[in-house]
């Protein structure tokens, strides 16, 4: 079993051939996909996709670069969508300073997602780009107020950042970026992450792994990331699949045990 812990099945590059994308994923050994929300106005579509496919669960939340059009979203609005059966997580949320836009709004909205995670017990999916220090500061502040857990998605940060996140009980997710030619430093970060804290994802339609780099990504391509990372870490492939799947179910506990087939 392979699980794509983070993809965007409602994005146009995928939904134009959604049946084919799901079919190819299943044929490639991908048993489960989590379709992640990036703006509140797309949630109904994401939920409908999850309801239409047994292999798909979903999240509810706002990407940090979408804060401007979601400026008035608070934890109550997020909570109002969490009772749907196939909502398994909160996010994606976090901080993205790469373009340095709406930083204070990003922080405020990130904190609203954390509150929603604390109140529901659902894990939070965290995006952090060029914002390691502030991400850790906000996480630590809220950890003092109440427990929550989650995953640093599409991790491309430093080893120190990874260790800080693991120390807070978070998981670290590897995307196709680990297969890229000039990412030795990132691969070495994953060598220092406990096996029990590693997840895998595509972030499709973005970040296609080698040998599909430059093409639109889809969940079936995750097999290349899994094979590459298992080999790099020196873990037998089937064992690595079991490790990452077990980690996924340990984190996303709302997904029923009957899915573990």
UniProtKB/TrEMBL annotation:
It holds the Pfam family TatD_DNase. It comes from the Bacteria. InterPro entries: DNase_TatD-rel_CS, Metal_Hydrolase, TatD-like, TatD/YcfH-like. Belongs to the metallo-dependent hydrolases superfamily. TatD-type hydrolase family. SUPFAM superfamilies: Metallo-dependent hydrolases (SSF51556). Transmembrane segments: none annotated. It comes from Candidatus Cyrtobacter comes. Gene3D superfamilies: Metal-dependent hydrolases (3.20.20.140). Keywords: Hydrolase, Metal-binding. This is TatD family deoxyribonuclease.
């Amino acid at each position: 079993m392979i699980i794509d812990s983070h993809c965007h099945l409602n994005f146009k590059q995928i939904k134009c051939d959604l049946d084919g994308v799901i079919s190819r994923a299943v044929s490639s050994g991908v048993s489960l996909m989590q379709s992640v929300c990036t703006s509140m106005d797309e949630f109904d579509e994401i939920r409908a996709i999850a309801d239409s496919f047994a292999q798909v669960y979903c999240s509810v939340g706002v990407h940090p670069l979408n804060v401007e059009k979601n400026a008035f979203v608070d934890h109550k609005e997020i909570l109002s969508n969490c009772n749907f059966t196939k909502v398994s997580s909160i996010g994606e949320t976090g901080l993205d300073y790469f373009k340095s836009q709406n930083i204070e709004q990003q922080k405020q909205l990130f904190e609203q997602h954390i509150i929603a995670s604390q109140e529901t017990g659902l894990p939070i999916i965290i995006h952090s780009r060029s914002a390691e220090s502030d991400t850790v500061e906000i996480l630590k502040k809220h950890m003092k107020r109440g427990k929550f857990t989650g995953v640093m998605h599409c991790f491309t940060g430093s080893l120190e950042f990874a260790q800080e996140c693991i120390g807070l009980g978070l998981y670290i997710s590897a995307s196709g970026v680990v297969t890229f030619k000039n990412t030795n430093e990132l691969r070495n970060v994953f060598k220092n992450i406990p096996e029990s804290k590693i997840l895998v994802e595509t972030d499709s339609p973005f970040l296609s792994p080698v040998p599909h780099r430059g093409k639109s990504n889809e969940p079936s391509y995750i097999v290349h990331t899994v094979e590459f990372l298992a080999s790099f870490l020196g873990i037998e492939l089937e064992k690595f699949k079991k490790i990452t799947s077990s980690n996924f179910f340990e984190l996303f506990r709302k997904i029923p045990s009957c899915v573990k087939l």
